[in-house]
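Researcher: Excuse me, tokens okay?
***
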Amino acid sequence: MRRRTTTMMAGVSALVLLTGCGAADMTRQTSPFANARGARTVTLSVQSWVGAQANVAVARYLLERELGYRVDTVQVDEVPAWDALSQGRVDAILEDWGHPEQEQRYVGEKKTIAPGGDLGVTGHIGWFVPTYFAKRHPDVTDWKNLDKYAERFRTPESGGKGQLMDGSPSYVTNDEALVKNLKLDYRVVFAGSEAAQITQIEQFAEERKPFLTYWYTPQWLFEKVPMTEVKLPAYEEGCDADPAKVACAYPVTPLQKYLNADFARKGGDAAAFLKKFRWTTEDQNEVSLMIAEQKLPPGEAAKKWVDGHESVWRKWLP
């Protein structure tokens, strides 16, 4: 997430926990089936936010049930996932939020990674306040008025400044530069993971406290805790090119899939299926909600979605 090229939501397999990016980087753990002679296997990278887990859960279920593959999953943070994909340690990334340096290096120059097409979901990062607070103080939704509310957003962790809560330091975020360059009386405080950030947001909401947080769409939590975006200075192409000088909003990003180049050429039905895999924000949120809120194992959540949406996934099959 998803613009600056620093690294950036149980799990789909035993390797994946719903604890956010705080989990260990598993880049070196390739599939136990990798390169097995005659084996129909696929290794999928799964990022630590729950939307990415939903993608992989459904893709895995269908690859195994409909196409007869064995599927392994590996949890890797965003930038290391590109390295793993280039090296063939994983076969596909199903949700990338935009890493232009890695794309230029591996897709454009080395040609070890191939585009896999649109996921069908549009992502956006922003700053959000709870809607219950925005309704009482509508001017808070303009960044120019944030300092007026800094004291209301103060926490023990933010000291004498207002708190801007981020998730994991590994997420792509421009927030520290934004606070500095917009001269705001705030401090970025990292919750540590998406799961920890969700817990804090839910606690604030239960107590009806004000908060300011880095957050993103699509995300199932909006169904439980309605939030309103704070308008930052308008995004323009190139305004975030220098991470230290960023003073603009995050872009709207059509989320992309990427395949290892050899897998894209030789991966047969699995590669064809993953290229066709395309669903909506509503589809992803439906599965994410089952995993994160209803606490269904990802395989069960995938089965429920697959059982109710055959007209969607049939089009993905080669």
